Amino acid sequence: MAASKTILDIRGKQLKLETAADVASFITSVNPTKLTAIHLGGNSIGVEAAKEFGRFLETADVLELADLGDIFTGRTIEEIPAAIQALLDPLLHKTSLREINLNDNAFGERVVPFLTPFLETNHSIRVLRLNNNGLGPAGGKKIAEAVFKSAPTDGSRSNLEVVICGRNRLEDPGAAAWAKAFEAHKTLTEVQMPQNGIRMDGAEALGRGLVACPELQIVNFQDNAFIDVEMDEEGRKAVRAWGEAVKTSWPKLRFLDLSDCMLSNGEGEVPLLLEAFNDPDTKNLQNLQELRLQNNNLDAKSYEVLAQAVTKLTKLKRLDLQDNDDVEDNEHLDDIAEHLQAHGGKLIRTEEDEEEEEVEEPPEEAEEAEEIPAPLATEEKSTFEMVADTLANLMSKVHVG
Q: Which of 82, 304, 328, 395 has the fewest C-beta atoms under 10 angstroms from its C-beta?
């Protein structure tokens, strides 16, 4: 019989916890030595409250999940560094810890020095969630360097499998540092880095770094730029790097989102990445189930290449081509739609297609079929998110001496 799990969960209570006394009522009846998960998100935690949670976590030696996302709403830039340090220091050497969630905290570059000791020291983490933290290029680079330092150097296998680091303004410097981290770990199955202001140099670096990760199953790079439309071959190096990666390196790939990535110049150019899908030497896409290519300046020539490719992508169930050129009236897209429908899949050309898909009865799937996790939400920001981004931007300009 499996041992029962002890979970402390105060998610979404919108509490403002200031003192140790505020925390006491939640932890007094919980045995930290049996704690397997702690969820603090959706509350506002001050320094003294964080220290009390930290003391509680010191003996949590079977803790597997630390959910510390969205815990600093309304906190000042003076409070957050000390509070996050108080929460992370007890976790430095927890070998049981498998997942850390730090999403939606307005860290900025200033808080990075209080995150890096944990990232460098704890080698047990499998899932790292750092989404929407306002890290900026310099902060993102330092975080990636810390993750790089945590990679094994003795030939043993890394534990890191999932990295979520979207909406952090990483830009090219941050992307290049993450590429080195990914190459060092090699064990990644999921990487999501949407909306980071990454351009072709950073995109190329990531493509080349992720080549070292043969177990990749989920890649979300939505809303970053692959090409410079004013350049020739030099401006296509990122698309070329990702095309080579698709051809040679990711046999387990199931989900790929490259929407809003400017893959083509819109003048009849077929991206090298799409040509790779149709290359006879490409044997690594047999598990691809979902491909998202919205808003990439694709046109009839690209659709012709895709029409040939989908016949080889035997597990493809969803192809999203919204906001590309002439999607509503093209014979190649008609062929793609017919082929996918015959195999239980669907082509998404317009927003109406997507809405229809949402209301359709989901088909029965085989018992062993794996569900693809939903990609990060990238819709229009809420008022809270815009305020958080503004605070993070201000924080990124303040440096600790």
A: 328
Strand order in the sheet with 99-101: 6-9, 35-39, 65-67, 99-101, 127-129, 162-164, 190-192, 218-220, 255-257, 290-292, 318-320, 346-348
CA gap 207, 199 in Å, rounded = 12
Residue 194: both structure tokens together: 């949407």
pTM for this predicted structure: 0.89
> What is the CA 297 to chain-centroid distance, rounded?
24
Give the phi and the psi of residue 332 in degrees, each rounded to 5: -65, -40
Give backbone dihedrals phi and psi of 320, rounded to 5 degrees, phi first: -110, 115
At 112-135, the pLDDT tens digits run: 999 999 999 999 999 999 999 999
Task: Compute the distance between CA of residue 189 and CA of residue 260 in angstroms, rounded to an integer.
Answer: 23
Which of 274, 345, 278, 277 lies closest to 316 in space, CA to CA?
345
- SS3 of 215-280: CCCEEECCCCCCCCCCCCHHHHHHHHHHHHHHHHCCCCCCEEECCCCCCCCCCCCCCHHHHHHCCC
The DSSP letter of residue 369 is P
For 54, counting Cβ atoms within 10 Å of its Cβ (0-12 exposed, 13-18 middle, 19+ buried), the class is: middle
Q: What single DSSP character describes residue 109?
A: G
In 3-state terms the chain splits into helix, strand, coil percentages (rounded to 5) of 40, 10, 50
